[in-house]
Amino acid sequence: MGKPILLHLGDDIKWNHGLYKQLQDKFEVRRSYSMGRDEFKRALKSHQFGDFVAMYRPFWNTGGEMGNWDDELIALLPPSCQIFTSAGAGFDWVNTRALAHRGITYCNAAAACTESVADAAIWLLLSTFRRFTWSALAARSCDAARFSDANRNIAAVTRNPAGHVLGVIGLGRIGQRVAQKAAQSFGMRVVYNDVRRLPREVEDAVGGAGSATFYADLHAMLGVADAVVVATPFGGEKVVDATHFRAMKKGARLINVARGKLVDEAALVEALESGHLEAAGLDVHYDEPNVNPRLAAMENVELLSHTAGASIDSHVGFERLGMENVLSFFETGKALTPVNLQWIDQKAKL
């Protein structure tokens, strides 16, 4: 019997060569490189990669040329496949429930980019309080009148975040780290909404002015928060719509470092234009890579190009964590960062 087969999606690894050697010692590594969807489908149908037991995608920019992992692709996987590990935090491009129904564990790599995304969220948070974009654009214009306008008028509409309430939608790894940085560095009080209340030790770990306070009702949480960070995975539906904006305090701020489709963008524009929201900071957008021009024209809106998690540190971690997930799964029976175990467990009980 030969070694079990692992299908490596995308480019060569760049950093964790010693760990990759461990993978090669335990598995026969076969490559798909950057096949488009039609070619990849033909390869699966013809059994080109053999009966692979695992799929490993180390980078976000490569290895995903086959497009969304929907029912069509998943149905073509061999019965031998047990785990799929991929770079990146979001997994709205893969039907993790369908994978689970095939008995395949899906692992993301959110843990590897937690620090980078949290740092970006804090920068966006600061920008919404201090209007850094207005000041920066005025300075970069090299226009003395614009510079003087920002210099003279920005203080009248800006605040320090200290003493304000931060609301976090989704207190996962990234949400927790954002909350810690805001509480411990700025003295913000943290409230959060999630599908369930987290253990007390997680709430206490936020630190700063005290434990994070759980709100089971999102509308109630929005009513007390001065700034709201969206940090929850995309589950197929909007999390913040017009009713939620109306529930937010007048003068509140919204930061989104999760997925653009979690927020009703038209309702966000309306809330900003009406003055109900003070400012917004967006790393992600509803129709990426297209940015809403109405948002882009607002000086009280900070915009990024979905780069919150983009750092060498994150990418080194993506590459490493994917391999660690595969090795752990076949050595211990448990992956490190699975996201669809609830559906695999349901299948096992049937």
Automatic annotation (TrEMBL):
Record flagged with keyword Oxidoreductase: yes
Domain D-isomer specific 2-hydroxyacid dehydrogenase catalytic: 69-340
InterPro entries for the chain: D-isomer_2-hydroxyacid_DH (IPR050223), D-isomer_2_OHA_DH_cat_dom (IPR006139), D-isomer_DH_CS (IPR029753), D-isomer_DH_NAD-bd (IPR006140), NAD(P)-bd_dom_sf (IPR036291)
Alphabetized Pfam families for the sequence: 2-Hacid_dh, 2-Hacid_dh_C
Keyword Oxidoreductase: yes
Ranges for domain D-isomer specific 2-hydroxyacid dehydrogenase NAD-binding: 123-308
Family: Belongs to the D-isomer specific 2-hydroxyacid dehydrogenase family.
Protein name per the record: D-isomer specific 2-hydroxyacid dehydrogenase NAD-binding domain-containing protein
